[in-house]
Amino acid sequence: MNRKINALSIIVLLTIGLLVSFVSFSAFDLSKSKYPQSSTIVLSADYANTEDETNTMPKELYGIPTESYDIMEATIQRNEFLSTILDRHNVDAKTVAELAAKSKPVFDVRNMAAGKKYSVFTKKSDPTKTSFFVYHPNAVETIIYDLRDSIGVDKIEKEVDTRIETVAGTIDGSLYEALRENGGDPDMAVHLANIFGGVINFYSIKKGDWFKIKYESRYVGDELLSSGKIQSAVFSHNGKEYEAHYFKPEGASEGAYYDAEGNSLRRSFLKAPLKFSRISSRFSKRRLHPVQKVYKAHLGTDYAAPNGTPIIATADGVVTDSRFTKANGNYVKIKHNKTYSTQYLHMSRRAARPGQRVKQGQVIGYVGSTGLATGPHVCYRFWKNGKQVDPLRQNFKMATPIGSQHLQAFHSVIEKTRIEFATLSTSKTQEPEQVAKVFEERPENLFRYFVRENSDNT
To answer: If I label 108, which of 22, 51, 84, 437 is the partner at 20 to 30 A Cα–Cα?
Structure first.
């Protein structure tokens, strides 16, 4: 009996000892800090590593002499705001409010976002005193907040260099993938759809189609920021080559894209109300309705796409109807002129109101499956002289071509580009890893509808 009591006592004492040890070590755990642990770097003006001159603190950062300051660099965390960051650095709420008000003309502090870097400058002679707060909203701009005697806000910008580059490739899976695999910006898929939307059915691009693109890129030093305007492009679809060249005639307020003969690529109507999609059900006088299970006319063309995909107006016009009905779900109807009207059905939500004037390519709603629908898609309906017709069988007029007085200048501009394209290979020639990192946060799901699937939506 005594042995059992002694054993129990030993176990109790060991348990208490372990608990005391755990509490003691936890109390002195230096890893616990009020600062964001994974992203904070504290720099000091005298921290220089004499064996590595690259680690020497510069005498000046963002125009601020560093000799008198310790500098903490960190990254904004989720659910972290300017007030919570500055509170940790002994800046009171009144000062933060004054800073936010003075910052508005330069930068709205409400737009500070998680993942962005910032720096805090504190006095060496008084570490509790924050003198400067520096925020980096992007790779070009830096916002500097002076928190000394009187609050000041300033913005500095790095010089951006625009370079002309080319990319080419052959589609094996999707346009998005082909651009990325060849070192291009996947977002150029959207630009190509805008440029060629009146002449190419982008919902039917397929393996073997290819492209060559000449475009602007923006750099800060040797760091790639983004791709810019497409200057010229060739897109081969179903064995036919389509050219696009941006040209701004002398004296014109804006330019446009033209083919090699100077004809405008803009049509009075786009081929489809979605930039990327696939036809899941065509215009038909007799089709088995997938919900009602009866044969009836389907006087529209269905384009399948993920929920939330933007739906665009296929031509300029005025919205005549925007509402919900049991059969059509959320829909928008547009009158374009005395001859043509279009309607867009089954939206998840509408983005246009009756009486609103809309432009070709403007977002008027988002793909959904409201009303009598079995899956997310838009049913696109087209009226000509009051009668519903198949939009894919219509021949639409081109916009105004380049004036004859500007043709010589146009041809001289594109001649060099056409020679460049002739020598540009569409085979994969470089590893895209380094370039792809710049675009790795792009919304890849927006392009999933390049992949063909079999379905039948209303």
So the answer is: 437
Q: Is the pTM of this model over 0.85?
A: no
What CATH number should be reported for the domain whose range is 37-157? 3.10.450.350
Residues 300-359 have pLDDT tens digits of 788 888 888 899 999 999 999 999 999 899 999 999 999 999 999 999 999 999 999 999
Which pLDDT does position 442 carry in this prediction? 43
22: tokens are 């755990």
**H or E element, residue 8:** helix 2-27
CATH number of 161-266+400-441: 3.10.450.350
Distances (CA, A) of 51 to 48, 56, 59: 9, 10, 18
CATH code for the part of the protein at 278-393: 2.70.70.10
**Residue type for 441, please?**
E
How far apart (Å, rounded) are the C-alpha atoms in residues 201 and 193? 9
User: Exposed, middle or buried: residue 170 (CB in 10 Å: 0-12, 13-18, 19+)?
Assistant: middle
The DSSP 8-state label assigned to residue 226 in this structure reads: E
Extents of the domains making up the chain:
37-157, 161-266+400-441, 278-393
- Strand 117-123, strand 152-157: pairing: unpaired
**Averaged pLDDT of the chain:** 80
Residue corresponding to tokens 């894919």: 392
Under 8 Å between Cβ of 72 and 86: no
List pLDDT tens digits, range 169-192.
999 988 888 998 998 888 888 889
Q: Which of 430, 442, 334, 438 is nearest to 380 (CA)?
A: 334
Pair type for strands 141-146 and 152-157: antiparallel
